[in-house]
Amino acid sequence: MSVMRFLGATSRDAMRQVRDALGDDALILSNRRMDDGVEVVAVAEEAQSSMVEQAEDVAVPAQAGTPSADASPAPGQDRLYAEMQAMRELLMSHISETPRPRNARPGVRGVLRQRLITAGFSARLVREMLETLPDELADVDADDPRLLAWSRRQLETRLEVLDDEATMLEEGGVFALVGPTGVGKTTTTAKFAARYVMRFGGDDVALVTTDDYRIGAHEQLRIYARLLGVDVHAVHHEDDLEGLLARLEGKRMVIVDTVGMSQRDQRVTGQIARLGGAARPVRRLLLLNAASHGDTLEEVVETYQRASRDAGAPLYGCLLTKVDEAPRLGAALDVVMRHRLRLYYVLHGQRVPEDIRLAEAPALLDEALAVGQGSPFTFDEGVLTEMLRPTASGQGLQALSRDLLAQRDQLARVMETLQRSVPGVTWLDAAWRRRESPPAIQQTWLEEHLAPPSMIKAWHDAEATGLFWSGGKPRGMDWAAPMIPLDANGDVLPLAWPLHRWPPSDTQRLTLARRHLGSHWHVFARVPDADVRQQLRESDSPWLARTRVQQRVWHAGERLAIGELVDLAEPCGQHTCRLRGRARRVTLSRLPVALAETDADNLQLWIATSHDSESGRRRGVYHWLGHGGDALDIDMRAFVYRQLEQDDLSRLMRSAWQQLGASAPLDCELRVYLAAQLAALALRMDLSEDGWAVDTRPVVKRLAGERKRRSPDTLLHGLMHLLTAHAALSQAA
Questions:
Q1: Cα–Cα dist 547/562, whole Å
Q2: Does the pLDDT at position 404 exceed 70?
Q3: 386: CB partners within 8 A, 6+ apart
C-alpha cells in the first residue's frame, strides 16, 4: 500500500520514521496529535510518480472512443481509484478537523481552549482568558499542574459568591425569587426558609406566594410552611403586595415565591415592577436552571436584569438549580461571571432542606473542570479557532461594545487582584485619580493620607519589617526620593513616604523607623554615617548599603579602594537572579573590612558578579557594604541577592517621574509619591512568582503596547496605562 501511517511519541519521532521508510522526498498527507502520540500519514515519491503514470495510461483509451457498457476496467484501475480516494478522504478529513489560521499557536493553548470549551464555557470567555496566558506557561506540558491552577484562579476571580451567609440571614429582608417556569422557585423558597429556620427559628419568617397561575401552587407552599413552622400568605392578582409587605414589617425574613414566566413573555416587566413598589426594599434573586443551554441562560439573565433595572434596582443575586441534572456547569457559571451576578446557593435535588448548599467557588469550579470527554454539542479545537478568526470587515458596533465591557471587567479584575494581594495598591489607585484634580484637592489628599498616623498604620497593616533609604535626589529628579518599606523577604512594597515628612536627621529617622514602624532590615542607597551605623550596631539591625568601586576601606591593616580588593574576596555562593528582565547567573563573594582603622564595626564587603546565563559573558559587578556577623550570613546572602534584583529601583523611579511630568500638571509631592509607588510595584510584579503576579503580568504587559520581553520597564508603562484606563472606564460606568 503506497499510503502509510506512522505513529510516534512526538512529531520529531514520527517524521524520523517517515524518512527511514519513505525517504526525504515523501509527501506528508496529514499530521495530527492523538491520545497516544502524533500520527503522520505519508506517501513515497515513487508511488506519487507511479500513480500519475497509471492515471495517464487509463486516460488514453478514454480519448479514443467511448467504451461499451460491458467493457472491463483497465488493469490496476480499481486499485488506483481506491488509493486516490483514500488520499482524498485523508486530506479532506485533515482539513476539516484542523482548520487553523496560519498564526494560530498549537500546543498548550489549544489543549486549554478545548478543555474549557468542553466544560461548557463560552468562546468569548475562553478567548479573554487565553489572551492573558503568562509567557512562562505557554510552553509547559498540557497536564502541568501550574496550568490548571492558573485556569482555576482566572475563573475564581470572575465568580462572585456569598461570603458570609450568617450575616445575610441575620440581617434578613424581603427576598423575591424570580425566574422562568419550572426552574424550581417554590421548592427553593422552602429550602431558603429552612436555612433561616435552622439558625434562628421560624417566628420571624413569612412566606408569600404570588403564583395564582399554577393549580395547587398555594397548597404546595402551605405544606412546606407547616413542616417548617412558619407563616404563609397568598397574594392574588388583584391584591396589594405592597400592603401585605407593610403588614409583615415585624418579620425579619420574608421570602416571596413569584409566578414563573418565560423570558420571552411580555408580562415579565410588569411582574418585576410589582416587586419594586413596596416601601420595604425587595431584593430580587434570579433562579437559573444549570441544565439549560447557555444561550437560554443568557437570554433569561438579560431579560430579567433589564426588567429589574427598570423597576429601580438591579438583580440582587442568583441561585443555580437542578445542578444534579446538568452534565456541564461551565455554561451556567460563565453566564453568572460575565453578568457579574453574585451566586448565593446551589440546589441539587428535591429534598427539603437537604438538597441546598452554599455556593463555594473552588468546589463549583472543580466540578465544572472535571468534565471528561466532549460531546456532539461542543466545538472541537479546530472549529473554535476558525470561529475566533477576525473577519475582514472588522467588528460591528454591538461586538465592539461587548469587547469594551469585557475590557472594563478584565481591568477591574486585575485591579481587584492587585489591591487584594499587594499592600499599597489601593493608595496608588486613589492617588492616581487625583492627578487631574486642582492643586488644592491634590494637597488636601496628600495631607490626609501622608500624615504620620495614616502612614504608620498603613506600614503596620502591610507587615513591613524593613526600610529602603533613598539617599536624596536621584539623578534627573527635582525632588528627593521617598522612603520605601520592605517586607520580611526584602521585597519593596509600593507604600512611599516622602522624605520631607520625616525628621530632618538620619539618626532621628532611624529612631522613628525602629520605634514606630518596626523596621528591622535597612537598605541604603549610600553608606550611612558613623552615628547611624552605631545606632544600627546597638540595635543589632542588619543593613546593606550600595557603594562605589572607588570607596576606600581598611583590610589587613591597609586602606585600599574596593576595586583593589575584588580578587581577595572569598566566593560564598551562586544564584540565578532576574536583572532588568533577564535571567543572570550571579557569583557572590565577601571580604571582612572596616571604614576606619580603629572602627569597631565588623563590616562585610559583598561583591556580586553577574554573567549571561547562556554565553557566560560577564555583565556587571555590584558592591555593597553591610552588617557583619556570622549568625546572619545565610540571611544576608539571600538579602544581597534580592537587593541586586531590585537595584533598578532608582532608575525606574526616575523614569516614572519623567513620564508623569509629561502629563497633566502635578503637585511635585504627588508626582514623586506616584513615581516611587509605580517603580516599586513594577519591580515587585516582575520578580514575584506568586499567583497574583503570574495572573496580572500578561494583561499589564499587553497594555504597554510593546511586543517586548517582560521587564520592569514594560510593566511600569503598562501599570500607568492600567490605572488610566481603569479610572476612565470606572467613571464612564
A1: 9
A2: no
A3: 99, 100, 101
Residue 229 is classified by DSSP as T
If you search the block for the grid coordinates 453574585, which residue do you land on? 342
Q: 3-class SS at 307?
A: helix
Q: Cα separation of 624 and 527, whole Å?
A: 9
Which is it for the CA torsion 64, 70, 71, 76, positive or negative?
positive
- CA atoms of 553 and 1, how far apart (whole Å): 83
> Between helices 397-421 and 691-703, what is the axis angle to 10°?
140
Beta bridge partners of 594: 554
Measure the CA–CA gap between 550 and 560, rounded to whole angstroms: 9
Question: What single DSSP character describes residue 482?
Answer: P
Q: Is 92 exposed, middle or buried (0-12, 13-18, 19+ CB in 10 A)?
A: exposed
Q: How many Cα neighbours within 13 Å face the side chain of 364?
A: 31
DSSP structure string for 579-612:
ETTEEEEEEEEEEEEBSSTT----EEEEEEEEEE
637 exposure class (CB count in 10 Å sphere: 0-12, 13-18, 19+): middle
Tens digit of pLDDT for each residue in 336-371? Answer: 998 999 999 999 888 887 889 999 999 999 888 887
CA 463 to each of CA 7, 492, 626: distance values in angstroms, whole numbers, following the listed order: 57, 12, 23
Residues with Cβ < 8 Å from 719, sequence gap 6 or more?
Answer: 678, 681, 682, 685, 700
Return d(Cα 174, Cα 248) in angstroms, integer. Answer: 10
Q: Give the least confident one: 19-23, 84-88, 477-481.
A: 84-88
pLDDT grade, residue 27 (50/70/90)? Answer: confident
Q: What is the DSSP letter of 545?
A: E
User: How high is the pLDDT of residue 332?
Assistant: 93
Query: What's the number of CA atoms in the CB half-sphere (13 Å) around residue 64?
Result: 7
Cβ-contact 458, 495 below 8 angstroms: yes
AA identity, residue 623: H
Mean pLDDT of the chain: 81
The candidate with the shortest Cα–Cα distance to 578, out of 523, 524, 642, is: 642
Placement of cell 486516490 in the chain? 84
- List 176's β-bridge partners, or say none: 256, 284
Please give the grid coordinates belonging to residue 614. Answer: 547562556
pLDDT digits (tens, 9 = 90+) for 424-445: 999 999 999 988 888 888 889 9
**Helical segments of 311-358, H only:** 330-338
Cell triple for 60: 488514453
Q: Under 8 Å CB-to-CB from 140, ≥6 apart: which residues?
A: 108, 146, 147
Q: Grid coordinates in use for 336?
A: 453568572
Strands 205-209, 253-257: pairing kind: parallel
State mean pLDDT over 628-634: 52
CA distance 195 to 311: 28
Please report the DSSP string for 677-711 in residue order.
HHHHHHHHHHH--SHHHHHHHHHHHHHTT--S---
What pLDDT is stored for residue 397 in this prediction? 46
Instruction: Please tell me the number of Cα atoms within 13 Å of 463 on its side-chain side.
Output: 7
Here the cell at position 227 is 413542616
| 3-class DSSP string for 55-90 | HHHHHHHHHHCCCCCCCCCCCCHHHHHHHHHHHHHH
Cα 33 from Cα 422, distance rounded (Å) = 42
What is residue 599's predicted lDDT score, i.e. its pLDDT?
A: 73
> 233 Cβ partners below 8 Å, 6+ apart?
206, 207, 208, 209, 244, 248
Instruction: Using only the alpha carbons of the chain, give its radius of gyration.
Output: 35
C-alpha cell at 730: 470606572
Q: Which of 258, 197, 189 minimizes the C-alpha distance to 228?
A: 197
**Interatomic CA distance for residues 343 and 161, integer angstroms:** 5
Three cell numbers written together for 556: 589587613
Phi, psi dihedrals of residue 593, rounded to the nearest 5°: -145, 175
Confidence of residue 213 (pLDDT cuts 50, 70, 90): low
